[in-house]
Amino acid sequence: MQQSNCKEILLWLTRRRQRCRVMGPSMLPLLSSDDEVLVDLLAYRYKPPLVGDIVIARHPTRVELQIIKRIKGVDEDGRYQLRGENPDSTRNSPVLVPLSLILGRVTSRFAAS
Amino acid sequence: MKRLIRTIQKLFPARMTASAHCDGPCGVYDPASARIAAEAVLSMTKKILAIDPDDRSHAVMNSLSRYITIKEEQAQLAKTDLLILWTDYFKPQHLEQHPDLHDIFWQAAKLCSAVKVEVSVEKAEELMEVIKKIHTIFWATKGREVAYYTAG
Questions:
Q1: DSSP for A68-90, written as a single string
Q2: Which of A4, A14, A15, A67 could form a disulfide with A108 if both were Cys (CB 3.0 to 4.6 A apart)?
Q3: Which of B16, B28, B80 has the CB atom closest to A19's CB atom?
Q4: DSSP classification of residue B88
Q5: Domain count of chain A?
Q6: Residue A42, burial from CB neighbour count under 10 angstroms (0-12, 13-18, 19+)
Q7: Which residues contact A98 (CB under 8 A, 6 or more apart)?
Q8: CA B73, CA B91: separation in Å to the nearest integer?
Q9: pTM, full prediction
Q10: Which residues of B touch A11 (CB under 8 A)?
Q11: Are B22 and A39 in contact (CB < 8 Å)?
């Protein structure tokens, strides 16, 4: 994942990107707990998510919970299969969500290192 | 750019958060992950204290730096794993059976912070003891007897 460049920071400053802090290990090794990412909340307004996108979504059964996962596929009912990056399956559970629960696309890592 | 981002993060913490832990329907939880991280903290703490503070050789300073980094990473990992267990696994009915549950987790989280910033074998051992209590409660809620053990 690319680091936030000047364009991304400018988009954040103009509120076209939101900062979001990752909590938990399911996106390791790509993202660690406490890493920050920039999210485009309008990314899917006019075009659908693509397999491979890293997204922020509402959990289908716990709507108060926002999750960060990668889109691994789309099922025949149009639901998106989301999964973390962590190869350790005990830290990585698949989730099926409809498009309405996908909030935005992660565009870069907002990191100082 | 790095300095700018670091300053922004320090002055204006991100308000939005996204969970990246086992938050789905898999239901796989185990306090063992926190125990392993806490054991690493204890081990690194002992290694740091075993270093001769008068030895300023590059090799020793390199080792010291590595021990500190690992100690802090593992303390944070232990805290994260415990908080996931606390907030995601344990339910109100567990609290009825174990009224001291919140106190135990709160104590564990505070100890994770303490062992991260300090070099205290006592606190690292205290953390291990609290994690042992959590292990006992956790497996009791599942109606299983799982022996507590350490790798060290």
A1: EEEEEEE-TTSPEEEE-S-S-GG
A2: A4
A3: B16
A4: I
A5: 1
A6: exposed
A7: A60, A78, A79, A80
A8: 28
A9: 0.53
A10: none
A11: no
Domain of residue B84 covers 30-141
What one-letter code names the amino acid at B44?
M
- The kind and range of the H/E element at B96 are helix B92-97
Whole-number average pLDDT of chain B: 89
Listing DSSP states for A26-44 in one string gives: TTTTTS-TT-EEEEETTTT
B28 Cβ under 8 Å from any chain A Cβ: yes
The two three-digit tokens of residue B16, written as one number: 């939005």
Cross-strand pairs, A81: A73, A96
Inter-chain touch B24–A94, beta carbons under 8 Å: yes
Six-digit token string for B139 = 């497996």
Residue B152 in any domain: the answer is: no
Any idea which residue has 């239901």 for tokens? B27
Q: Would you state the pLDDT for residue B25?
A: 47
List the single residue in B with minimal CA-CA distance to A19. Answer: B14
| Chain A residues with at least one Cβ partner in B under 8 Å | 4-6, 9, 18-27, 31, 33-34, 36-37, 39, 56, 59, 61-62, 65-69, 84, 89-95, 110-113
Check B20 against A113: CB less than 8 A apart: no
Min CA distance, B7 vs chain A (Å)? 9
Residue A52 in any domain: the answer is yes
Q: What is the pLDDT of residues B59-110, one digit of tens each?
A: 999 999 999 999 999 999 899 889 988 988 888 889 999 999 999 999 999 9
